[in-house]
Amino acid sequence: MRELEDIRQDIARCDAELIRLLEKRMDYIQELTACKKASGRPLLGQKNRHRKGPSAAGLSGRRYKEECRRIADSILWAEKKVQARTLCPGNIALIGFMGAGKSSVSHFLRDMLAMEEIETDELIVAAEGMPIADIFAERGEAYFRRIESQIISSLRDKKGAVISCGGGVVMREENVRSLKASSRIVLLTASPETILSRVKDSTKRPILNGNMNVDYITDLMEKRRSSYQAAADIKVATDGKSVAQICEELLAKL
């Protein structure tokens, strides 16, 4: 039987070699992402497509198969983080009218780029312990907007997150300043007809309660248009596009 110290030295050498190879792999991922950007090729691929990577590379019949699979999954997660940093070093803040697709885009980027997903409305609900509709009814919109600004300000130091903002966030200049401190702001747009088709069955849109129609939505969108336009670094129209198409266009513009 070998001496303990000899075994420990061999483990240390394995660790050093693993780290070296992992760093090299991440360099290749960064190079691959840059190459895709330069050539105009799709950056993300398909969300549900089987990912060829270490988790699929020769594990059949191997010892420690389950342990290696878990490590491989972690490597793929780290690969996504490297890709995210290459595409957008800070955060991505999604703004736009309710129903423009912010939550769907946020979910997709979370899964494809291993970004932390933050929904400002969800943070408000958690902080206040009640649904947004109840906050509006019991405490008023002015109170809601103050809490919203506090939440936005608390995100200034975040990195590597996709932040899905409530529809009225950009109506306060202080919110825009807080977001721009660490985020690229992406305006998602859609026609009033598209918006109505997406939100007409929702009970979580207190501003539209009793006004669920194209005329009211058009009027409210017009009131917010200049604020949206002024805050946005880029704009992406979502009408008639899949979430994958929207995200590819978003990242290409970033």
Give the secondary structure arrangement, pairings included.
Blueprint: H1 4-39, H2 65-87, E1 91-95, H3 102-113, E2 116-119, H4 120-128, H5 132-139, H6 141-153, E3 161-164, H7 173-180, E4 183-189, H8 192-199, H9 214-231, E5 234-237, H10 243-253
Parallel strand pairs: 1-3, 1-4, 2-3, 4-5
Helix pairs in contact: 1-2, 3-10, 4-6, 5-6, 8-9
What does this structure look like?
- By secondary structure, the protein is of the alpha/beta class.
- It is built from ten helices and five strands; from the N terminus they run ααβαβαααβαβααβα.
- It is 57% helix and 9% strand.
- A five-stranded parallel β-sheet has the order 2-3-1-4-5, sandwiched between helices.
- Helix 5 packs across helix 6 and helix 8 (192-199) crosses helix 9.
- The longest helix has 36 residues, at 4-39.
- The mean pLDDT is 88.
Key traits:
254 residues, alpha/beta, 5 strands, 57% helix, 9% strand
**Number of DSSP-assigned strands:** 5
The run of helices and strands is HHEHEHHHEHEHHEH
Distance between the termini: 58 Å
User: Main sheet: which strands, in order across?
Assistant: 2-3-1-4-5
Proportion of helical residues: 55-70%
Number of DSSP helical runs: 10
Low-confidence stretches: none
Overall mean confidence score, pLDDT: 88
Tell me the overall shape.
elongated
Computed over alpha carbons, the radius of gyration is 22 Å
Strand content: 5-15%
Q: Pairing-aware structural class of the strands and helices? A: alpha/beta
Biggest sheet: strands, sense, closure?
5 strands, parallel
